[in-house]
Amino acid sequence: MMQVDPEILEAIYTQKDENLLELSQKQPVLLIFLRHFGCTFCKQTMSDLSKVRAEIEGQGILPIIIHMAQEELATKRLSNFKLPDIGHVSDPDLSLYAYFGLKKGTFSQLYGLKVFVGGMKALAEGFSLPSISKEYGNISQMPGVFILEAGEIKLAFIHSFAAERADYLKIIAEYLALEEK
Asked: pTM for this structure?
């Protein structure tokens, strides 16, 4: 789909001191770019991922979280969602977000009717209202999901609006179907 500069991937390290190029050469990597850690939908994302992580890894795919917070804060927030050991990358200057084509949201993508309805559903599911803090990241950043294999983006899911939920198992099934062709 899209070749990524190997030098860039080689320079991106998780908190486990593993670079994305080497990881993607060993196995497919599911890169999950979060919104800010105070975001209600980011909390949904972490909860959703926690529920299907074993199934994702059972299919030979390694999930890695990309976020905007400092490493220590991210580890704490991920631990709250039973993801204490998941690989993650801190990108406070949003250079990776930009490199992967993830943009700042428009007003309707961040606050429109679909977001309002999604927010009401999230609150009904028990997720808290958003909390805004610069340490969590940029509140206007949109999220996305990519499957990276051998330094190449094989599949991309770019959120249309902030409340849109990625179905990780569906994304992986689509990727595996493409690989069979």
From this structure: 0.91
